[in-house]
Design a protein that fits this description.
mainly alpha; globular
Length: 465
């Protein structure tokens, strides 16, 4: 199940990074067949992703006795896996083919979760089980992140450029429906069946679904790779020599760290402090998913008109103010702010995720863009991992400092810390250039003026006599 501040999925919803026609296209019948198969493959992959993350993984870790530090690591090590993206791109470029490596990484990364399901049966001390879960998540994430990077480049060569928006919009919608249904089914099961059997059954089903997705991937057609290849050193040095890219990267690295300071503990807060059931968490997730379907097109139209930078400035500020506030206003038995937070979650992230993606395209050169995107993914992933790494010790520190017998908890202090960091992100964003973008002040002043100016009186047309 998705977390309130999710890392990028292994199969991104947005179109792949290459903005122009690929050098080698499949024949149209083969491309259409692969596009249809990709929606089916993505549906099975979505079940695997949702059932090995979010509240399923958080609940399983809590059952195994995970400490706050372990919970922070479990949530953040998938981001560390993004660091292999440049290496995966370079290796496949040297090999000249993607399918074999993509299928192998999918099989290994998903198959490792069989070990996670077997943890309660292993003859190891109880305190070691959560540490083993962290290790399994970390190792699996390396292969899954590599698979995601290869899939992005692969589908970028399959889907015709003029159809990418329409195709990936359809694919995202179908996968969103599948993910919501999977979340509700898992929540109902976990609430009714005793642990650890409940978690083991969900994880085994997730692995099966993931392996089916890998089998469907073998049926995809693959265009040959282009001839242009970068040396390993150039894969890193070329993007870092671009001053515009460095400004965007500084903002994105800071933002990833700020988000992950609190993100690993939103779901533990829901489950442990608010005593929400797994079905209630799934309903929260469904509220967010449905709201995003409505709000995302509105943000998209606004970004097309005023630019991505002012949209990001507003949405990141809301993610640091309104979103944490809705979490902290809730209390056990007083959950209406959580249902509101589902809408706010969709409001901010349906602007932030596409905004960062689109701004990364607008500020990087077309030539060798794959290297830029790989380095961007790797460094933001490392930053998110470091944020999650410090989140657990911070929560322990805040627990020691929190006053007893009050409504204020260590969770609230942690959310406040992340909120302050998030609110300051716009100071780095304003240094990122974007052609034709409005200033944030201009965007706010024009829309506030529309809200505050008196409306003209309604006049009825004169009757004909």
């Amino acid at each position: 199940m998705p977390t309130p501040d999710p890392p990028e999925p292994a199969h991104p919803a947005a179109p792949p990074a290459d903005p122009g026609p690929p050098g080698h296209l499949l024949p149209e019948p083969a491309a259409r067949r692969t596009m249809r198969l990709s929606i089916l493959e993505g549906s099975f992959a979505t079940v695997f992703i949702n059932w090995t993350s979010g509240s399923v993984l958080t609940g399983y870790a809590l059952h195994l006795g995970a400490t706050p530090t372990a919970l922070g690591l479990i949530a953040s090590v998938p981001l560390l896996g993004q660091a292999v993206s440049p290496l995966a791109a370079w290796l496949v470029g040297r090999r000249g083919r993607r399918k074999g490596v993509a299928v192998a990484t999918a099989l290994i990364g998903r198959g490792l979760w069989l070990l996670a399901a077997a943890l309660p049966l292993l003859p190891v001390p109880d305190e070691a089980r959560s540490a083993l879960l962290v290790a399994i998540v970390a190792l699996s994430s390396l292969f899954i992140a590599a698979n995601g990077a290869l899939w992005t480049a692969w589908m970028g060569d399959v889907v015709p450029w003029k159809e990418r928006g329409r195709y990936f919009g359809l694919r995202t919608g179908v996968l969103g429906i599948v993910g919501t249904a999977a979340n509700l089914a898992a929540g109902a099961w976990l609430d009714r069946v005793q642990a650890p059997l409940s978690f083991q059954a969900v994880l085994l089903t997730a692995v099966t679904s993931g392996l089916v997705a890998a089998a469907i991937l073998t049926r995809h057609d693959e265009p040959p790779l282009g001839s242009a290849r970068l040396a390993m050193r150039s894969t890193f040095s070329l993007p870092m020599s671009d001053p515009t890219f460095r400004r965007l990267l500084l903002f994105a690295v800071y933002w990833s760290f700020a988000v992950m300071v609190s993100s690993p503990f939103v779901l533990p807060y829901f489950l442990n402090h608010l005593h929400m059931t797994y079905v209630q968490v799934a309903v929260w997730s469904a509220i967010s998913a449905v709201s995003a379907l409505v709000l995302a097109p509105t943000w998209g139209r606004l970004a097309d008109r005023v630019g991505n930078r002012p949209v990001l400035a507003v949405s990141t500020f809301l993610a640091g103010t309104l979103l944490p506030l809705t979490w902290m206003l809730a209390a056990p038995g007083h959950l209406w702010p959580i249902w509101l937070s589902g809408v706010v979650d969709a409001l901010v992230w349906s602007a932030i995720n596409p905004g960062i993606f689109n701004l990364s395209l607008a500020t990087t050169p077309r030539e060798n863009r794959a290297a830029f995107i790989a380095v961007f993914s790797a460094l933001t992933g490392v930053a998110g991992f470091l944020g999650g790494l410090v989140s657990g010790p911070l929560l322990d520190l805040y627990r020691a400092l929190s006053p007893a017998a009050t409504g204020w908890t260590a969770y609230h202090t942690l959310f406040t810390t992340s909120a302050v960091l998030r609110m300051l992100a716009w100071t780095l964003l304003r240094r990122v250039p974007e052609d034709g973008a409005w200033r944030t002040r201009e965007l706010l002043s024009r829309h506030l003026r529309r809200l505050t100016l008196p409306r003209p009186p309604l006049r009825w047309p004169a009757r004909r006599r």
